[in-house]
Write a structure and sequence with these properties.
The protein has 256 residues and is an alpha/beta fold. The protein has one domain: Rossmann fold, CATH 3.40.50. The chain has eight helices and six strands, in the order E-H-E-H-H-E-H-E-H-H-E-E-H-H. Strands 1, 2, 3, 4, 5 and 6 form a six-stranded parallel β-sheet that branches. It is globular. The two termini are 30 Å apart.
Amino acid sequence: MSTKKILVVSAHPEPRSLNGALTSFAIEHLRAAGHEVRVSDLYAMKWKSTVDADDVPDHAGDGPLDVLAAHEHATLAGRLTSDVAAEQEKLRWSDAVVLQFPMWWFSFPAILKGWVDRVFTNAFAHGPAVPPPYTEGAALGGRRALLSVTIGGRASAFTDRGVHGALADLLFPIQHGVLWFTGMAPLEPFAVYGTVDLPADEYAAARREYARRLDGLFTDEPVPFRSLVGDYDRDMRLLPGAEAPGTTGLDLHRRP
């Protein structure tokens, strides 16, 4: 496999945690395979997670803050804050992105959501100045993406009949609404369950499986999400009859 460039984004406040261990493992494993790796450890960076007027230095304080318009202007003018600009440069550099995080309240931590909110600006990751979303040619197209998520609950609770709902449905807003929206090809997520007291043998098994998933970062088939161009009408609704019989819910947006 040729050398690739991979950005690992880590979101856990404790470096000695399972997430910290998985982050270190991914970095070491990918580098041992010959890849270039850059890291954004959001807690270590003390990442500012809120979008406000401080993100757009040219904003006139006497008027309302239109975030989309202000982001677009600052992005096109090269006037974003240095921390945001640095993360955008990492994304431009990358061939793949690995997001490492614990599932907190059925989503990713606020600091990682804040990374997306501030870094995926209008005119960089989406917007009228870039190709349409939900396509391979969208703003961040050509990149692979892998979610590595730790979950305190048992695996059976995150299934179609599990009390929490299927993991694919819970992660749909991230997989589809963040990654695929911007053109990245998301892989099936890697998840470690029952992490409150994870036995040593289960951690060893998780490492082995994670190594396999990292090895397949550029060869595994991505989630087959549909393209906005060709699968949806002008109102962005799935074309009639495009789904397999009996398909409902979020599965409608996966190709049969």
